[in-house]
Amino acid sequence: MKTTSAKTTSTKEPSVRRVTWRMLLALGGMAALAVPAAGPAEAASHTADQGARTGRCVMVYFDLGETLVHTAEDKSVHYLPGAAEYLRALRARHIPVGLITNVPPSWGATDEERAAELKKVIDKDWAGSSPFAWSDFGDRIFTPRTEAERKPAPALWKRAKKAAGSCRVVYQAETAEETQVGSSLGYLAYQVDRPGWPAFLPVRVITALSHLPHGNPAPSKGR
User: What pTM value is reported for the model?
Assistant: First the structure.
């Protein structure tokens, strides 16, 4: 569905990504040593608030269309392969998630109003066996207030990063252009669903980032 995000067909890899997969796996190994098994479910926002006070937390933002959900013109809207399971894995680790996605600014005067309209549009044509996990995202859905704010303009990433406070920020999308912009603004940016790579940034890597002091620069993943 074209209204949820502006895409390009560019396949050029961002030159700013320098961290190797081996380095990311090393971070994942740190998580396995440092992080206890997840306990009873807690609100992700509470976890983020606690981490923000120490600078040891992470916020994971996604694009929506063709990143988490398939938004085809044939009115068949559903999770992309592995997306529902991935969100559940982040939820189990109490890692807060958000959306940075394009919608028509005319959908509302605030992010809340535009998000409400987005939910209606997605739910109307939803064909998945289980509903989209809107509750995971809370009020962390960032949408353009004007046409000038539409991605790939940096405005939405800047607003989302500000909302994350002192937490590290991750951004995942399906286009190289968007991940390059996110990386240039301080996100660990990951391009999803590429041949030969995990469909999404492994949860153990994200968990490791949440246990690193924010003073260390966040890496960006690429080939």
Answer: 0.77
Measure the CA–CA gap between 75 and 58, rounded to whole angstroms: 34
* DSSP symbol at 3: T
- Which residues lie across from 172 on neighbouring strands? 62, 190
Q: What is the DSSP string of 122-191?
A: HHHTB-SSS---GGGTTT-EE--SSGGGSTTSTHHHHHHHHHTTTSEEEEEES-HHHHHHHHHTT-EEEE
**Confidence label for 189 from pLDDT (cuts 50, 70 and 90):** very high
- Contacts with 120 (C-beta within 8 Å, 6 or more apart), sequence order: none
97-100 sheet: strands from edge to edge: 141-142, 97-100, 58-62, 168-173, 188-191
Q: How many CB atoms lie within 10 A of CB 65?
A: 24
